[in-house]
Amino acid sequence: MSAPGQAPSAGYAAVFVHEDVPTAEVDRLEALHRPLADSVRDLVDATIRTTVEDEEVRAVRAEVDALVARLRARQLDGPAGVRYNAEGRTWSWGNAVVGERNAVAPPLEVVRDPDGLVHADTVLGAAYEGPPGMVHGGVGALLLDHVMGVAASAHQRVTLTGTLTMRYVRSTPLGPVRVEARIEREEGRKVFVVATLGDPDGVTVEADGVFIVPRWAV
Ligand SMILES: CCCCCCCCCCCCCC(=O)SCCNC(=O)CCNC(=O)[C@H](O)C(C)(C)COP(=O)(O)OP(=O)(O)OC[C@H]1O[C@@H](n2cnc3c(N)ncnc32)[C@H](O)[C@@H]1OP(=O)(O)O
């Protein structure tokens, strides 16, 4: 444990890395890598749903292994972390929900309206299944946590999830989903956020959470 007033651990603090990369270069790299993540996401879906012959499965595996080896020829020592430049541009390419290079993350664009509503639309396919044909409850929580965190941070402060409560009103079918979140109220360093996850027929999960501005971030 770290002393009060400090980041929880050197490891945590170390993921916020200042990097002297101009915004145009960050944008160029994102444009280069995003289609690769899209293709890998497609590969994940195809891996789940393929019905090809055994030999074809073995052959594809060999090709995928070769591709992995090519990408690993030069790579970071650990996770991608959160990076920022002098222009205030931040990027977190490995983020589990919005990482531009993360094929595990559903493609999600989080939008903040002028009135404070934060929302995101995406389509969840076979990789996000829990009950048959339905979104895994943990995936719903993942999306809600992130969008609620964005609402709490208001793009100007660090907040961490303190407590997250969810009520699964009905199952969420795989397919198009929408997350909405807004700040309900604030008390000192505690930010209370309410949110919903829904399908085209309406709300499927209701959530409320307490997001904390950690003492080390004040
Ligand atoms: C500029 C940057 C913008 C970036 C935008 C990007 C958006 C990204 C969005 C990503 C989204 C993804 C997000 C993620 O995935 S965040 C990852 C998941 N969350 C965590 O890992 C958090 C782990 N916990 C901690 O680090 C600490 O325990 C925290 C920071 C939470 C509090 O430690 P701290 O030492 O700071 O707190 P304190 O003891 O001084 O207490 C202060 C007040 O808070 C109250 N309290 C304490 N704990 C809890 C609790 N668990 N629930 C409810 N309330 C709690 C406490 O009673 C007190 O209230 P009061 O007595 O004053 O009334």
Automatic annotation (TrEMBL):
It is a peripheral membrane protein. This is Acyl-coenzyme A thioesterase THEM4. It is an enzyme of class 3 (hydrolase). The lineage of its organism: Bacteria, Bacillati, Actinomycetota, Actinomycetes, Propionibacteriales. One of its GO terms (cellular component) is membrane. It catalyses: dodecanoyl-CoA + H2O = dodecanoate + CoA + H(+); (9Z)-octadecenoyl-CoA + H2O = (9Z)-octadecenoate + CoA + H(+); decanoyl-CoA + H2O = decanoate + CoA + H(+); octanoyl-CoA + H2O = octanoate + CoA + H(+). It comes from Nocardioides marmotae. Belongs to the THEM4/THEM5 thioesterase family. Its EC number is 3.1.2.2. SUPFAM superfamilies: Thioesterase/thiol ester dehydrase-isomerase. One of its GO terms (biological process) is fatty acid metabolic process. InterPro entries: HotDog_dom_sf, THEM4/THEM5_acyl-CoA_thioest, Thioestr_dom. GO terms for molecular function: hydrolase activity. Residues 133-204 form the Thioesterase domain. Keywords: Apoptosis, Cell membrane, Cell projection, Cytoplasm, Fatty acid metabolism, Hydrolase, Lipid metabolism, Membrane, Transit peptide. Signal peptide: none annotated. It is found in: Cell projection, Ruffle membrane; Cytoplasm; Membrane.
